[in-house]
Specification:
By secondary structure, the chain is an alpha/beta fold. It folds into 2 domains: 196 residues, no CATH class; 149 residues, no CATH class. It is 53% helix and 10% strand. The chain has 18 helices and 9 strands. Helix 4 crosses helix 12. The protein is globular and about 80 Å long.
Length: 453
């Protein structure tokens, strides 16, 4: 009898997951070479628009792997069906664990409201959708030339985090005119006054006042540039909107990382315990792999100040299931993102148990700060605000077409990388084709203006 492979266990693990209460769209599993796994992780999708920045990310991942700091077991793309790519170098135990882990992700993405909303607007078939974008951009390269297309991609990908998921993906342009204010006649005099025939304007005439652009600070910069850049051509606009669509798809993955990875880790551990059909040695090897995934520190050092989202999420879900039951856990899985998850369910007791703390590092000295639970929550969540990007809004378009951007440093709570900001302004100015000005503050709190050109 031939030795069993991980594919032989997929269906049985799926059936066990379903009996245990998980609900998920069908997942297509595929084993691929390690080099392709890295390409998928770097590009974010199996097929995606070409750009030089992805090459830089690939080199970084390659160096990290050769230094022993990074290894990819799987990459998952939520959808209907979902797609899971497993490294062909994985052993049987690793792939059994990964299969169970993927099904946890598949359940999370199918039932979480944020995932549902974004996938409903973009597509449940994101792999095919992104491939269409790639073909569309390849056609633009053939007709417009690589240099022109790359200029547009430089700007669009530099702004890929600057979206507004509180707005609809396919939102209309701003109203062209300011809507007239209607006076409510709430007493006898106003009622009589409102009933008078107008005499100042000719009969049938309506005075309209143009609305400013933007009518309010706009943080969806990809949408704003696509709609209001003075000389943007249709193919350039299509590239901006394609990048924006893919950002809408990626946002839930970013905004629920701790929850999602913790949920998948909780379920792969539980399914492994209940999968009595797995050979004993494969089970023991998988348990060892699990302990490596959810250890407190995502590195070989015994002492580190980084946070492993797998460990934190896994520990939180274990406590939630213990205290609130599976029904309570399923409700949290559906309703929360990482902001609600951390603020509502990372208790002082669990933080102490996990030895989580804030610290300051100055002059080579590390000092543990006061054990303020709210401050700990915000320190964990700080990198997640605004999709991890500085809060920059489009404030005004001047009469000469100059675009005024403002960095909301009070809301943002962090400064700008000035060198990177200047590069992004240069990219943006090439597609805006008018001057672009960004207002922020320097370290002393004084107003600082960056301009391009």
């Amino acid at each position: 009898m031939s030795e069993a492979t991980w594919q032989d266990y997929v269906q049985r693990i799926e059936e066990l997951a379903t009996r245990s209460g998980l609900s998920f769209h069908r997942v297509e599993f595929e084993a691929v070479p390690d080099s392709f796994m890295m390409e998928i992780a770097v590009y974010g999708l199996p097929v995606r628009m070409p750009h030089w920045s992805f090459g830089l990310r690939y080199i970084y991942q390659l160096i990290q792997r050769h230094m022993g700091h990074s290894r990819l077991f799987e990459v998952v793309f939520p959808g209907n069906p979902g797609h899971a790519y497993l490294a062909s170098g994985n052993g049987l135990a690793e792939n059994v664990l990964v299969t169970a882990h993927v099904l946890g992700h598949a359940d999370f993405s199918r039932n979480n409201l944020l995932f549902q909303r974004c996938q409903r607007q973009v597509s449940e078939h994101i792999v095919e959708h992104a491939a269409n974008h790639a073909r569309q951009i390849q056609q633009a390269i053939e007709t417009q030339g690589m240099e022109r297309v790359e200029t547009v991609l430089d700007a669009a990908l530099a702004l890929e985090q600057h979206i507004d998921v509180d707005q609809e993906l396919r939102r209309p342009r701003y109203p062209q005119y300011i809507e007239a204010v209607k006076v409510i006649a709430d007493d006898q005099f106003r009622k009589r006054f409102a009933a008078l025939e107008p005499t100042a304007a000719p009969a049938g005439a309506e005075i309209k006042k143009r609305a400013p652009v933007p009518p309010h600070p706009e943080r969806d910069l990809l949408w704003f540039v696509a709609q209001y850049a003075p000389e943007m051509e249709s193919w350039e606009r299509d590239i901006f909107l394609a990048v924006r669509e893919e950002s809408f798809y990626f946002y839930p993955v970013f905004a629920t990382q701790i929850m999602n990875e913790g949920w998948a880790s909780y379920w792969h551990a539980r399914l492994l315990r209940e999968a009595d059909f797995i050979p004993q040695q494969a089970y023991l090897d998988a348990v060892k792999c699990h302990s490596d995934v959810v250890r407190p520190v995502a590195a070989d050092s015994q002492v580190a100040l980084g946070l492993n989202p797998y460990h934190l999420g896994f520990s939180m879900w274990e406590k939630i299931v213990e205290e609130e039951g599976m029904d309570g856990a399923l409700a949290i899985r559906a309703q929360d993102d990482d902001f609600g998850f951390i603020r509502n369910h990372l208790t002082r007791e669990l933080a102490d148990e996990l030895e989580l703390f804030r610290y300051s590092a100055r002059d080579g000295q590390i000092r543990v700060l006061e054990p303020d639970l709210n401050a700990l929550h915000e320190a964990i969540l700080a990198p997640k605000y605004n999709f991890g990007a500085p809060t920059v809004v489009a404030q005004h378009i001047r009469a000469d077409g100059t675009l005024e951007l403002v960095h909301d440093h009070t809301l943002d709570g962090r400064g700008l990388d000035l060198e990177r900001s200047r590069r992004v302004l240069d990219y943006l100015q090439r597609v805006w084709r008018r001057p672009v000005l960004l207002t922020t503050v320097n370290q002393a709190g004084l107003v600082l203006e960056l301009t391009a050109p």
